[in-house]
Design brief:
It is found in: Cell membrane; Endoplasmic reticulum membrane. It catalyses: an acyl-CoA + a 1,2-diacyl-sn-glycerol = a triacyl-sn-glycerol + CoA; a long chain fatty alcohol + a fatty acyl-CoA = a long-chain alcohol wax ester + CoA. It is a single-pass membrane protein. The chain is an alpha+beta fold. It has two domains: 148 residues, Chloramphenicol Acetyltransferase (2-Layer Sandwich), CATH 3.30.559.10; 264 residues, Nonribosomal peptide synthetase, condensation domain (Chloramphenicol Acetyltransferase). 37% of the residues lie in helices and 20% in strands. The chain contains 13 helices and 16 strands. The strands form three sheets. A seven-stranded mixed sheet has the order 5-6-7-2-14-13-8, with helices on one face. About 1% of the residues have low confidence.
Amino acid sequence: MTNEEEPLSPMARVFQSPCIDYCAVTTIGFKTKIKPDVVLDALKHNVSKHPRFHSKLSDNGAKWIETEVNVEEHVVVPYIDPEEIGEDGEGFVDDYISRLTWSPLDRSRPLWDIHILNVKTSEAEAVGVIRTHHSLGDGTSMISLILACTHKTSDPTNKLSTSIPSLKRRQTASYNLRNERWFLFSTIGSTVRLIWNTIVDMLLLVATMLFLKDTETPLKGGPDVGSNPKRFYHRTVSLDDIKLIKNAMNMTINDVLVGITQASLSRYLNQQYDKKNEEDGSYPNNLPGGIRFRAGCTVNLRSEMGFKPLADMMAKDSKGRWGNYFSFITLPFSIGLQTDPLVYLKISKSIMARKKHSYHAALAYLIIKLGQKVLGAEVTARLFNRHVMNTTTCISNVVGPMEEISFRGHPIAYIAPSCYGHSQALLVHFLSYAGKMTISLAVDPTVIPDPHKLCDEMEESLKAMKAALLERGLL
């Protein structure tokens, strides 16, 4: 094989820097036991079709170099003693995946591996763990890869080209006003707000990289949080409930998810500030005033947002390219107890509407790209990491298959994506799949020892919002 070289994208350069080194962990629950020979056979036939999975990083981390792949070296099937595990399948899987965060991927070969755990949990008969370096691709890319390897459970001959809805970016709404003068004034006003919002966002971005830090809360990680082992937890909720709230409140799915996250983090922090009331179940407002709590939120930069067949994403001039083609915005969360759960939704809708009326995401990506050319990759990565360290968390939402899918006769129960290597104590990922929404948390257990309570608060916040709408006759 010829050692062809290809440069890394700007975000890929950031993710493989020594001060960051992000890895993605995708946990997949299966409804049947996993047959390792089936997995190996599929990999032997498909790895060669995907350049990233048969390429390694150059010594300076700037280019991909094609190489030979021994698939057996990338598939791990550990010996599992059923008696040792007993009834605690979840505990074994949680511990196993956490241990993966202790050991880096081997940079002398392609940066991925697959772990097959034939352990029964409450949601699955077996669990597969795909670990990839984040420089290989973002969440959109990884889901496209999963789709390329699976088929609809109800129709094994269907390769899922229509299993994910085709998404397009929202166009600027037409004013459709008869009064042209008013239309002109509205356009000028909107443009001025866009410029002003962008300037403010860029000043805050630079300030956060240099000195502006979030308030120290029980969810804020310390300086060593990036190198600490992480643990992963997930909770599955109804996607239909989220859509009901979305329609009733005239919002987007992302608006609802941000509202749920704000509500659950507020409730969790309130408990942490006064644990003595935990036993009797009463939680008065113990939150200090003026908490600065910000979350990075990933933004897909592809001009075509819908999922494309893997071959189309790999095409050089594709508008839905494979790789790390995303940026981020910074959301100022409103941390506080609200007697009306719908207030969290109204706040999130306002925050998201303000952020959509800004070029923050596009300019942040451009700054990273220019920074690597002017300051070098390592300095740019350190500045990026300072922004991550000075904020509290990050949230991401990826659209998954609408119908149940299977991998070569193995039906999939859930898909839970997450990451580690980040300089934050909490990451929140959302992924929709077959009528459900999976909420995945990556936590530093030295900072957040009870992540299951965060999952509980996420679920309870969703239920409270739905109940409030039902009570008011809005559903």
